[in-house]
Sequence to fold (338 residues):
Amino acid sequence: MQINEFIIHRIDKEQHRDPTIYLRRTPLRVTDARVLKFTEIAVGVFKNNEEKPSSVFADFNVDTTIYPFSDWCLRYFNGTTNFAALTRDCTKRLAHCMKQQHASTGGFVVFANIVVDGMNKLFVIMLHPQDGLSIDEKLQFKDVTHLELKHIDKAALITAPANGAFGNKPVAYAGFRKAMSQYFQEFIGPDAFRNPSKDSAELIDKLEDYARGNNFDEAQLDAARVGIRQYAQQCVAGATELDLTIISGLVDPVHPAAFAAYAANLGISAFIKPDPGVFRRWRTIKHTSADGLVLQFKAELVGQPGTNHRLELNSVNKTLLIKNVEDELIEKIEAAKT
Fold:
């Protein structure tokens, strides 16, 4: 990992009090071993928390008047704003969001321009100092203040734009389930749940891929389908998001964390607003006729005549049209008839 620029600002705030901002004027030296150590640890914890994935992958909100962070990032990456100015504006904006959240408390705000996995990114993290104890050279206790990096719940990793525009889902940020952390999400301004249908379909696709890659038999896959459909129905009824950790346990009870890690590495968000229609269609239809006709297909493949579905059902004529038949199936049929 390469660090291009690095800076720390501070926001002091007690609950139900207005924040006070302390800004650094210049970035820290990126060659400082402590800067490198901190960044490696913080980014590593944020990216590799596989036991309980917490990242949401999102686009920026299109309303840049209410959510200006994306515009500021775009100007910075395009070279029209320098790093110190960007981070000062961001810290002021974050403090404003904290002011609206009366129970929020202050901390340090760290910004780093890094190159990771060959891609330029902006890393933003907020840390709250923790009071603790240490032992000095005289073997006596002394009071210390330290930063807790084991669990990161307020951070974002922004992938730099290409050709002057952000790509698909350039924002990875910690998924905030607590109201206490919503001010950070408000500051980042993601639009994670703009397309529940697409996000739900992507989740199902990755589950099917995982099942094939791990040699699930049909009974295992059916059990996962039924469990996830029921869970999705519960989430829709309760107006809550799908939790990837819970889904992972339904997919593979023997290895309950495996699918979550697999899906998170492929950009599936930790929390997804479900589209009930997608999960209702996610069924396998099986039928065996008395004359030996055996059919098995996904319900979403079937549509009415004239649609773009692979299978077209005409209930009146009692016909099922199969389109785009594979060459291999055609060869098998022709070989069996000779």
Remarks:
- The first strand starts at residue 2 and ends at 12.
- Residues 284-337 form one domain.
- The chain has three domains: 2-188, 196-280, 284-337.
